[in-house]
Amino acid sequence: MSEKPSADRLRSWDILSLLSPRPMWRVVRGVARAPLDSDFAGSPLAVCWFLTFACNARCSFCCKAAEIRQGRDAFPPLALPDARRLMERIRRTVDILYLSGGEPLVHPHLSEILDEARRLEFASVGMSSNLIALDEHAGVLDRLDAVAVSIHAPDVAGHARCLGVSEAVAARALANLDLLAEAHRRRGLKVIVNCVINPDNVGRVMDMVEFTAQRGFLLEVVPANEHGGVSPELTANPAYGELIDRLIELRRGGGAPHLAGSTAYYRNLKTLRPFRCFPYGVPNIMPDGRLCTPCDISGQYGVNVLEHESLKAAVRASLPMLGAYPCRQGRCFKAGIMERSRLFGLLLSRTNE
Ligand code: SF4
Ligand code: SF4
């Protein structure tokens, strides 16, 4: 039986700390230093590198569907020597590396990239995955500190519909959870299950609370995002509001200590009140090294990190194209940025709560 997460309720701090095995002072130091810097945006704490936009699933709610459709020519993956150079520049600025996609497991150089991350002594290396191909690459788990896995329903048929794959493929992804559980027990790999609420699974998300609790995994619940906002098809469904109410109840009552996200986060998902965005701290990098400014929804790719001596220098070079900053539109409800923004807002006493 795998070890359960702490019985304490998970807060924003815990979400950030999932990617860092070191004490939280590292994050506090970064945030405290940021306002004193020439510009808050110039002090990244971590980086999210979209390693590839190739994927072996076809989720109807994929927020990277446009990039996946545009294909390899629009976002070519880096050759290994360039990938190593990019990582060196990232490492000069941040301790925490997070690899996302697309599906990182289908990247031809993932293994070498993870070796390089270890050689560069990143304090923490995390990765997102749909797990479909994990059994062919199980060795990568030994080089990771945290994995965020996409599981949207506890049953094969439901998960297959969400991923847009055959039931055989969905069954393989679910079976690969055992590999994660084993790495969690053996070497403390942190596992967080990411469940996207979508019109197909909205009635089954509560089952995911139990499914993840039984396995000792953390659970992050996020609504499907369409064109930079929560899908109207979802919010018009009364089952969506009822689900969020039940999740808020669980948060308040301490009934699901493995449920990530603050109560404020769930309240936002219910009211759909725009959040105050501070899109700082974790720059997004495209497969070829271009920086997304200020966030991956913006579609602004003016600066390539490979053309600068460090990630920090690249972020600074991108500042003139940020426009009104911070962005106050706040309707994208991007889970990671909402929680981070809330944390930054609290630390800077600028929260909109
Ligand atoms: S697994 Fe992720 S990247 Fe692939 S289609 Fe689904 S949401 Fe998109
Ligand atoms: S609110 Fe923040 S995360 Fe959302 S689109 Fe604007 S800058 Fe990006």
Describe this structure in words.
By secondary structure, the chain is an alpha/beta fold. It has one domain: Alpha-Beta Barrel (TIM Barrel), CATH 3.20.20.70. It is built from 14 helices and eleven strands. It has helices at residues 12-17, 25-33, 65-74, 80-91, 110-119, 156-163, 167-175, 177-187, 205-215, 232-235, 238-253, 263-271, 311-318, 335-347, and strands spanning 46-52, 96-101, 124-129, 146-150, 190-197, 218-223, 225-226, 229-230, 284-285, 290-292, 303-304. The strands form two sheets. The protein has a nine-stranded mixed beta sheet with strand order 6-5-4-3-2-1-9-10-11, with helices on one face. A two-stranded antiparallel sheet has the order 7-8. Strand 9 and strand 10 (290-292) form a beta hairpin. Helix 4 (80-91) runs parallel beside helix 5 and helix 11 packs antiparallel against helix 12. The termini are far apart. The structure holds iron/sulfur cluster (2 copies). One iron/sulfur cluster is lined by residues 55, 57-59, 62, 64, 101-103, 130, 150. One iron/sulfur cluster is lined by residues 228, 277, 279, 294-295, 297-298, 327, 329-330, 332, 334, 337.
